[in-house]
Amino acid sequence: MKNRFDAVIVGAGSAGASAAIWLATAGWSVALIEKQVFPRRKVCGECVAASNFPLLEALGIGPEFLAQAGPELSQTAVMRGARSVVADLPSAPEAQHPWGRALAREVLDTLLLERARAVGVTVLQPWAVQKINGLAGSHQCTVRDTVSEKLIVLHAQMVILAHGSWEPLPADRAVQRLARSGSDLLAFKANFRGASLRAGLLPVLMFPGGYGGMVLGDHGLFTVACCIRADRLEALRRAAPGKPAGEVVQDMLVRECKGVCDALQEAVREGAWMASGPIAPGVRLRSDEVVFRIGNAAGEVHPIIGEGISMALQSAWLLCSRLAQARPSNPVPDAAAWQSEARSSYAAEWRRQFLPRMRLAATFAHLAMRPGTSAALLALLERWPSLLTRGATWAGKVNYATEIETTLWRKSYDNHRPYPCHAGEGFQTGPQPAHPGRPA
Ligand SMILES: Cc1cc2nc3c(=O)[nH]c(=O)nc-3n(C[C@H](O)[C@H](O)[C@H](O)COP(=O)(O)OP(=O)(O)OC[C@H]3O[C@@H](n4cnc5c(N)ncnc54)[C@H](O)[C@@H]3O)c2cc1C
């Protein structure tokens, strides 16, 4: 079994799988470790901003994404109680597909993973990374087959953490925050059939102690996702003893948000409510590390602006474009030096790209969750709905990667192919989907 790689990537969400595709396409040998079996559902609003389409195209899943995703999201609404404000969403300039669309994560992440496999990535799934030792240039990753419990050690020049935010590596668990607070935000999501929402509308929900969103996605599937403070949830659960948390959240949304009540009138829920969290918005990039971080493992944005998938895809691209440029064409003894240079350049660009939208999202989230400030915000938006359009632009909905940038990126890879391409060796022991898509 092959156990030496140029890069080991932990986690095959949108960030990890896309980084694996970029690096494998550039000729690196890559192992992608994912502990869950795909397709897997995920707590997420599942909206993918138009700014990502050039990246999806360059990653090789553009046509599949467009063929499967829900309707173009050309308008947004902010809904609070019985009131709502509707505004246009900005359209990506000169783009063939100017608006974002929703696609279930079990479909999107499976498309990316299958693509990674097709370009030669070695996928270990369902395997979990247990421990990472060593330094830049000579890492040892202990990985565990979650079915047989077998342990193996992989050696890699570089490790990229893309394990999301709620699932710390076992080695980090000791420092996990154990004390929970009432202000912790717990995340929920459910899918429905037969919901009625105007196609193309992407509403944001504001309610006391939380915020959320709903959208019509692929194949008529309707998604409701939200975050709610732990103390608000506890109070709701005390008032409905014995009821599952997700159902309590659904009752509250229907009762307190007219938009949800209208949308779900004829709807039938598909599957159970999913829950996760608490979410931990903030920056996780650190300058003293010997590994790289992308996606939520690098930093998490309040999901009220639906930009987490963008940050996952875009941070993977930011990092990999730097790695392709920084890595010397022959192995050199001082791997730490060039990796450190790439890490600093990546961190600087990451902050430039993502900090403004993280701050905007945090402000919006805090205003939305408090009754007084959300009332004032709604009044402001009723007066100037165009602020919503402008806010969506500031949030990065349309202005990231362009065709030109991804073309340059491809050229840069062609010029920096460091090693011959290694064929991937599949280690997957769990069930494999016949083709990317929803489980039957
Ligand atoms: C309520 C809610 C709504 C949201 N709505 C939207 C939205 O509409 N649009 C949007 O763009 N974003 C949205 N987001 C944010 C988005 O879901 C995340 O930002 C995104 O999933 C991050 O992608 P990732 O690849 O970094 O991590 P993840 O998607 O979390 O992937 C991490 C992967 O790593 C694997 N993993 C973890 N630990 C290990 C290990 N030790 N070994 C091996 N594998 C491991 C996990 O199994 C997982 O598959 C929402 C989030 C929430 C909470």
| N- and C-termini, Cα separation | 33 Å
Bound molecules: flavin-adenine dinucleotide
The helical percent reads 25-40%
The count of helical stretches stands at 12
Average pLDDT, all residues = 88
In total, the number of strands is 18
Largest sheet: 7 strands, mixed
| CA-atom Rg in angstroms | 21 Å
Shape: globular
- Supply the helix-strand structural class: alpha/beta
Q: How large is the share of residues in beta strands? A: 15-25%
Order of helix and strand elements from N to C terminus: EHEEHHEEEHEEEEEEEEHHHEEEEHHHHH
Identify the quaternary structure here: single chain
Q: Low-confidence parts lasting 5 or more residues at pLDDT below 50? A: 415-440
Attribute tags:
440 residues, alpha/beta, seven-stranded mixed sheet, 36% helix, 24% strand, globular, disordered C terminus, binds flavin-adenine dinucleotide
Architecture overview:
This protein is α/β, with parallel strands linked by helices. The chain is built from 12 helices and 18 strands. It has helices spanning 14-25, 53-59, 62-68, 105-118, 230-238, 245-256, 258-264, 308-326, 335-369, 371-383, 386-394, 403-415, and strands spanning 4-10, 30-33, 47-48, 75-80, 83-88, 101-102, 122-124, 127-135, 138-145, 151-161, 185-193, 201-207, 210-216, 222-229, 268-279, 282-283, 292-293, 299-300. The strands form 4 sheets. Strands 1, 2, 7, 8, 9, 10 and 17 form a 7-stranded mixed beta sheet that branches. Strands 5-4-12-13-14-11-15 form a 7-stranded mixed beta sheet, sandwiched between helices. Helix 1 links the parallel strand 1 and strand 2 (30-33). Helix 6 (245-256) packs across helix 7 (258-264) and helix 9 packs across helix 10 (371-383). The two termini are 33 Å apart. The model is unreliable at 415-440 (pLDDT under 50). Bound molecules: flavin-adenine dinucleotide.
